Structure formats: structure tokens, C-alpha cells
Amino acid sequence: MKAKEKLRRKISSGGRVTPAEALGLFSWDPLELGAAADERRKLIHPDETVGFILDRIINYTNICEAACDFCAFHAGAAALKPYELSLPEILAKVKELSERGGTQVMLQGGLHPRHTLGTYTGMLREIKKRFPAVCLHSFSPSELDHISKKSALPLDRVIGELQAAGLDSVPGAADLLVDRIRARVSPRKINKAGWVKVMRALHARGMKSSATMTYGMGETLTERVGHLKTVREVQDETGMFRAFIPWSFSPKRTKLEGMAPATGIDYLKIVAVSRIFLDNIRYIQAGWLTEGLKLAQIALAMGANDMGGVLTEEKVVQATGSGTKAGMGDFIDLIRNAGKIPVLRDSDYKVLDRRPGKAHK
């Protein structure tokens, strides 16, 4: 039996793919790879539903010590002036989301030089006091590490106090888990081992997360597979990742401007390989915000089975000038036109509405 046919059978039967085999998948024809990934998707998510959530990203400040080369949002990256939202302004944004039927808030602010643990716990408590039903899926592994260091407190205690104040879960913003790249583009943020440490600490507190991948920053295909391998190993150990979200790096308005951006084929292959390799993660999100709605729709035939959030507000990707905007109607039409069934979900991926668009306008 030829090696390719043997691998194809392994994929369709649910066998675990090795890193070397995953690397070889990048050379497959995109249509063939997408079909194999969709077979894999059916093994772990056999129905044809595609979920989305009504949420809001609140970028409460752009003052960040990390000053990553790949970021166009932090103060000083381009023409953006430093800002900080007041607590009343933050609460007003949460109120607006809640009144629209939204269920999730993502607070994101980077590595602020003056904020202490009390800054974050105070913010969480006030939001939860007024909007107890809203899920606070907020901050990031690098932010948690930063809070720990700024407050001179153990990471476990920091997570415990944030959780007690109302933090429900943490986005597993991983950027690219390749230390060679991280040392070049984000040397002030935690390395791969630091990210894994935070994930384990969150798991010890019973908290859920996700895992992301920002590719297209000069890494090799072998390094991309290495990123996926780290994610799969942490998921094997903890089972804490609800979803995996890959997206391409946009070099516009960043210190890496001039670097050739990743292509649509690159993205679709990443989605498909991720679905095949990450056999322990049920949901793969289609990155409509960075890749555009049409490419996200194609991704639904290549292993992706979630659309993420109908974002009421998002500034980080928009800062590059390449972000896409969409509403609930766009999501519903896109999913249906892909031959799938749109469902409104919550932060735990539980279905809230199988006929979305009726009660939520």
C-alpha cells in the first residue's frame, strides 16, 4: 500500500497522525486535503451544525510593554495614541452587549506597566455585579504572567483571585509557539514553556481555555507542526481547550511591514491540517475576521465547524487595516450557503438557539 493511501485511511478511520505525517499533508492538493479533513471533522462532530456566539472584545487600553513587532495596535506601533477606558466606559460597553442578547465579553489590554492585580479584580467584580450572566472570557496567558510579575505574587494565586472576582475562562492566545520566532518578534512576552505553564495553572483551577495560532511570521512548515504538537500535548494532558483558532499574520502597519502575507491556500491548509492533527479538539474556528467571509466559508468544508463571535467591537485586527466586519445575518447566510446549519451557542459551545436570527436582531 502506498504511503499516501495508508495515511488517507488512517485519517478516515480516526488514527492519530504523527508530526512527520502532518508535515507531509502540506504537500497534498488542497481539495484532497480538505476532503480528508472534512472526513476527520465528521468523526468528532458528525452533525452539520456550525456555531457562533454574540460577544464583544473590549480593548480597554493599548498601552503595552510587550510592543511586539507583529502588533499594529499597541501605542507607538503606528499612529495610534495611547488610551485607557474608564470603568464606566467599560461597563457601558458590556451593557450594550447585554441589551443585544450577547453572552460573552473578552477583556484584552496587553501588558500594562502600571496595572496591578487589584486593577483587574476590581474590573471583573464590577462587571459581574451588574451583569452576572455575562461570561468573562478574558485576558491572555501573557497578561496573567505579567500580572503575576507586576504584583510579585505566584501565578496560581493570581489566577485564583481573578477567578474569585468573576473571571470564567481565558483565551489561550498563543501567537506562535516557536521560541525562535518569539525571540525575534515578541521577546518581552512569555516563551513556549511559559505559555504551557499558564495553561497548566489554569487547568489546576478548573478553568477552560482555547488555543490559537498566528502563522506567517517567517516560520517553517516544521515549526508550524511543532506549534500544533504543543497544543495537542497540552490538550492530551488537560482536556481544557474548547477550540482551536488559527489566523494569518497581517504585516500592515506593523514593524514587519513589507513581509509577504500568507495566502488563502496557506490558511485553508492550516485549517485542514489542524483538524486532522488535533484529534482531541472538537471545534476548529473559521477565521473570518482576518481571512474574510468567503475564505471562512470555504474553511467550513475543510474541517472548520465554528465561526467564533459576531463581534460587537474589535480593535486589534482592525488596527492593521485588514479586519472584516460582519453581523448575525451575514453569519447565518454564510453558514446556510455552505450547506450547514447555523446555531447560536454560548461560551461552553452549548447550543442556545437552533433558529438564530428570530429573537436576536
Most strands sheet: 6 strands, mixed
Stretches where pLDDT is under 50 for at least 5 consecutive residues are 314-322
Please count the helical segments: 14
Order of helices and strands: HHHEHEHEHHEHHEHEHEHHEHEE
Domains, number: 1
SS-derived structural category: alpha/beta
Based on the coordinates given, report the CATH architecture: Alpha-Beta Barrel
What does this structure look like?
This protein is α/β, with parallel strands linked by helices. It has one domain: TIM Barrel, CATH 3.20.20. Helices cover 43% and strands 14% of the residues. It has helices at 3-13, 19-25, 30-44, 87-99, 117-130, 141-151, 155-165, 179-185, 192-204, 221-238, 264-277, 288-291, 293-299, 328-337; strands at residues 49-59, 104-108, 135-136, 169-170, 208-215, 241-248, 283-284, 306-311, 341-345, 351-353. Strands 1, 2, 3, 8, 9 and 10 form a six-stranded mixed beta sheet that branches. Helix 3 (30-44) packs parallel to helix 11, helix 5 (117-130) runs parallel beside helix 7 (155-165) and helix 6 packs across helix 7 (155-165). The chain is globular and about 60 Å long. The protein starts with a helix and ends in an 8-residue tail after the last strand.
